[in-house]
Amino acid sequence: MAATNMQEQYNEYISKFKQNASQEVQDKMRKAINELERSDDGKGIRVGEKAPNFTLPDATGKGVTLEDVLKNGPVILTFYRGGWCPYCNMELRAYQQLMEDIESAGAELIAVSPQTPDASLSTKEKNELDYFVLSDEENKVADEYKLVYKLPPYLVDIYKEKGLDLEKANDSDSWTLPVSATYIIKQDGTIAYEYTKADYKDRVEPSEVVEKLKSL
């Protein structure tokens, strides 16, 4: 199975960002990542641990329960920041390219963000996604997976200057997000694989996750 072009897209986007963003903005974004890496926040749960069960609404508001999905086979569970995040959209589209492989391995894919169901619907439609896109408002489930962190005020200012209205997208003024994380959950609910990074630009190539899934 060939790798997706996600990393290539990331590199192109990062290169453009470095050309267009001021050094001050770049320094502050790097500082925020460094602070998060040094903190105890967003470390995530580990291989061998039991995945917390949850029921979350899909893009149409219908509840989806992890335990119910696991009855049909293993699950790739990925937490993303939101449809406003270009890296997240590239990752979500890369997984869409691999849906046939995921389904032929008898698995399902669930993507979770703190966005409202309406914002999730926009993300699903914009990226033409054929898998579960769920809304974890207030990051309650992400918190059970130990992924939540609070954006520092200087980063909130940058987001607002860029016109990123997280308060509207998430219907919350908490300015908290999940760390980007991907898990493979076995049918018995155990975490078989995890990839969790404080740096939102550092994500596992989706085809690697599918290879791990096939080797279960």
From TrEMBL:
Transport found in the keyword field: no
EC id: 1.11.1.24
Domain Thioredoxin: from-to ranges: 45-216
GO cellular component: cytoplasm
Pfam families named among the record's database cross-references: AhpC-TSA (PF00578)
Family matches, as Gene3D superfamilies: Glutaredoxin
Keywords, ordered alphabetically: Antioxidant, Disulfide bond, Oxidoreductase, Peroxidase, Redox-active center
Top-rank lineage group of the source organism: Bacteria
Keyword Heme tagged: no
CDD domains: PRX_like2
Reactions catalysed according to its record: a hydroperoxide + [thioredoxin]-dithiol = an alcohol + [thioredoxin]-disulfide + H2O
GO biological process, one term: cellular response to oxidative stress
InterPro entries per the UniProt record, alphabetical: AhpC/TSA, Peroxiredoxin_BCP/PrxQ, Thioredoxin-like_sf, Thioredoxin_domain
GO molecular function terms noted in the UniProt entry: thioredoxin peroxidase activity
Job of this protein: Thiol-specific peroxidase that catalyzes the reduction of hydrogen peroxide and organic hydroperoxides to water and alcohols, respectively. Plays a role in cell protection against oxidative stress by detoxifying peroxides and as sensor of hydrogen peroxide-mediated signaling events.
Family affiliation: Belongs to the peroxiredoxin family. BCP/PrxQ subfamily.
Name of the molecule in the record: thioredoxin-dependent peroxiredoxin
